[in-house]
Structure prediction request, 424 residues.
Amino acid sequence: METARKFIKTFSNVPMLGWLIGFFAAVLIEYYWGYDYISYYLGLPKIPVLFGALIMLKEPIMIPGAIAYDLIVYVIPILFIAKVSIFFTNRVAAVLEKTPLWMSAIIHLAFFYGVLHLWAGINDYRVLIVKLTLISIILTISINVINGYQGEFSCSHPGFMAIGAYISSILTLYFFVNDKTFGTAVLSSELGPWLFPIALIAGGVAASLGSLLVAIPSFRTRGDYLAIISLAFMFIVKSAVENLNVIGGARGMGGQPDYAPLPIIFIWTILCIWVVHNFVTSIMGKALNAVRDDEAASESMTVKTRKTKMTAFMFGAFWAGIAGGLFAHVLAYINPGMFSINRLAEILAMVYFGGLNSIIGSIVGAISINVLGEALRPLELFKWIIIPLILILVMIFRPYGLISFKEINAKKLLRAKHKREQGA
Prediction:
């Protein structure tokens, strides 16, 4: 414990910019020397895709080599560069502090995306994992609005996701693709990437309107009725899609154009984080928290509780629809089975593992469960034993999740960290 405290203190004056530069240096090392030199001389067949986790589980004999690879490529360079660059990075961070916060945030995000793009670009598998993880972040944040900030328990997110996925897919296939179901494209395919945001928003709006089928009856009642009605809604949407042969039925719908590259998904994820953060910290967000804590007291203080809950529910459903649209165009194929009880279990695991009432917690939960799920893939059936056990332990020791009731403080996150601020 004492060692951990000393370690944290040693690096406590490293600003966010320092960590980004350290990560950038590590990615450059892997990009130029990871395959031809480091992995080769450590006896690894290829560059580890998920920090060696897959290799270690598939071939335990490779564990020493995978650990050595992580130390040489990631741990040592990141810590070393972050520490030795403190003088420079703190000065730059201090200069950025004098600029508007939005400008500093954009500069940091652009740098972060550049590093992430370079890291993911080493192989296609990483690109796919990063894309799906970013979509999971949108899903987790959107359900946290309902299950966390609103204090309800909704099970309808896979249904909202399905509505967004199918509506956006129908629009892109009908307007921009020569498809056997919808015939010749109505518009030029060159317009597709530019008009794709409209298709996504249409899917989000459709999901938001669909949420009224859950919100109107359930918010007239109290207790666990929302969970029951929302679960029924999820099965209704799944069954309806399975029986609509015009959109593929149980066979699914394929052929969606590749309108969701990594930069587009990253922009939508950042937009979701920013919009949801503004929503939950606004007057509406404060009213939502008040309704969650004591509905009767809120109503006596002139808060329109039913309107507040329905607004938040539709808002969360909108972003679930956006995530569904992105998901469909990443995989270029969807079927009703993708939006079943298994998807619901994954979404709930991410939000309750990361933490309720916290955007940071949602991000941590989405990344953790996605990476852990991929890392444990070689274990097959045992994967679904290990992950629930971890969730059970988290629920016992951290009932509200790892990082709960904590908001993003961009100013504090991006500021310079001088010694005087550390008490030195």
The first strand starts at residue 253 and ends at 254. DSSP finds 19 helices and two strands in the chain. The two ends are 21 Å apart (CA to CA).
